[in-house]
Amino acid sequence: MGNALNCGCGHHGPGNKMLASAGAARDEPRELDWSHADASKWEYPECEYGGQMSYFKDPVFVEGVELDKGLALLKSHPDAYDGIIYQTSMTDWPVDQQKYKLVKRTGAGFSVKGKSRGAGFTYIEAKYQALPSDVDVAPDEYTDSVLDNFQGQKLGTPMMPGRGQGCVDNPGLKIIGDVDPNDVAQGGVGDCWMLSAISGLAEFDGAVSKLFRNEIDEMPHDEFNTYTIRLWDLSQKPWQEVDIVVDERLCSKPDGHSLLGNTASVDGELWVCYLEKALAAHCGGWDKIDGGQPVHAWRMLTGCEDQYTFRDDDGDGFACMGCPDNDTLENSPHDGSQSLHYIDWPEVGGGGDERHKCEHDEMFEKMVAWDNQNYIIGAGTCSGSDSEDHQGIVDGHAYSVLRCVSVGGFDLLKVRNPWGKGEYKSGMWDDDGPGWEQHPEVKEKLKPVNADNGVFWVDKDEFFKYFSTVYLCAHDMGEFLKD
Q1: What span, in angstroms and rounded, lies between the C-alpha atoms of 264 and 261?
Q2: How many domains does the chain have?
Q3: What DSSP character marks residue 259?
Q4: Per-residue pLDDT tens for 33-45?
Q5: Helix axis angle, 294-302 relative to 192-201, nearest 10°?
Q6: pLDDT value, residue 27
């Protein structure tokens, strides 16, 4: 990123965050467009299995009679069906007794288990292979060593997107298409702090593009791919930019059936997957990013030293805290010291010395000023387990704050869960809350979208009820907004 993000916390001129929120128009759920699929890249591998199935959500079956008709439907509409199931022996039966099940392509993650010749059932899968499966692997220096285990378990065989291994096998495969916060979908690592920070960075699409040193517009290629990602090395004093080179293999869970980390977007964007992999390698492994704070991720992503943590620990107002001694930091949030100290408030938003505390009204006003200045904002809930939630907002979890606005007499914040799902429920301004219909002028201005994508609106009181910590990267990111 060069010197573009050598930043201070002063005022850089009027912000244009309202323009940045073109992301509002991209909140519609992404859809995979199969119309561009190359018919020659469909394959139909066949296996026998004992009847056991695996899936993320309940699959949808379409039952029929006469096997040849079912097979014809599968091969004429592979974009509509994952595959077909039938009893192996029925090929010798009368056609009016040949019952089959087509598995609709709904994103259920359907697969069969217990594969064994003569097991009784046959599954024929419609598999799209965007890239050749026969490729010479040139390993990076991380995947088979630094990144081969997590929480004491050895990970499964890494998966290569688009090569017929069940990982992003679709015609939309790309590194970067239309960058926005909704590309982030946290996987099985406790790195919400990092992914919420990345989601906030993604409001400024040019900042994401500049992290990748490859000419990525036409990638991935048929040959084995490697990606060079520029990060900031906090272990060097002063911090230095370094290139992290990772190969195309993505780490899988110990059973090898699915990705360990972030999942690709529905339409096949992979940039978050490789950025997360590079950050994990940069920090020393998956365990080294299991827990942390968004401000630490922004240090590595931007090189910006002006990172702030605002906490309301005792209910008497938010205090401004930071880590002024950068010499104590290392790349992993688990290494070095990240002790927080009271510091002066950033000038944008009105400033204040280290003793100043903000009640909710003043804190919101400051957040609006930071948002308009194109700063990146995050928020954290109270400590606890993310298996516990309050009206859909989970404990011990980091979120992105995408908008802070006053509209129609209401103070509202747009928040995003890095899981890519899981939203606030029963609020005035949740996806189907009553506020939108009661105040159509607000709806017209903010254009909310009713979709389970992790994005939701809350009013100021709701926000501060659940979020006791606010994070800030105090650099004007407006220069990274693309037209």
Answers
A1: 10
A2: 3
A3: B
A4: 888 899 999 999 9
A5: 50
A6: 54
Q: In this structure, are residues 52 and 114 in contact, taking their beta carbons and an 8 Å threshold?
A: yes
Where does 105-155 show beta strands of DSSP type E? Answer: 111-115, 121-125, 127-128, 149-150, 153-154
Which residues span the domain enclosing 388?
A: 17-30+304-480
**Bridge partner residues of 28 (DSSP):** none
Of 186, 331, 207, which is closest to residue 273 (Cα–Cα)?
Answer: 186
CATH number for position 443: 3.90.70.10
pLDDT tens string 81-133: 999 999 999 999 999 999 999 999 987 889 898 899 999 999 999 999 999 99
Residue 472 backbone phi and psi in degrees, to 5: -145, 130
Check residue 130 and report its DSSP letter. S
Point out which residues pair with 322 in neighbouring strands: 341
* CA pair distance 173, 194, nearest whole angstrom: 24
Whole-number Å distance between alpha carbons of 375 and 458: 20
Same domain, yes or no, for 455 and 310? yes
Whether residue 432 is contained in a domain is answered as yes
410, β-bridge pairs? 407
Average of pLDDT values for 64-89?
97
Cα distance between residue 85 and residue 167, in whole Å:
21
* Strand 376-381 versus strand 389-390 pairing type: unpaired
User: Do 172 and 269 share a domain, yes or no?
Assistant: yes
What is the enclosing helix (H) or strand (E) of 364?
Answer: helix 360-372
Tell me the two tokens of residue 473. 């990267």
DSSP 262: P
Residue 80 gets the label, from left (phi > 0), alpha (psi -120 to 50) or beta, of: alpha
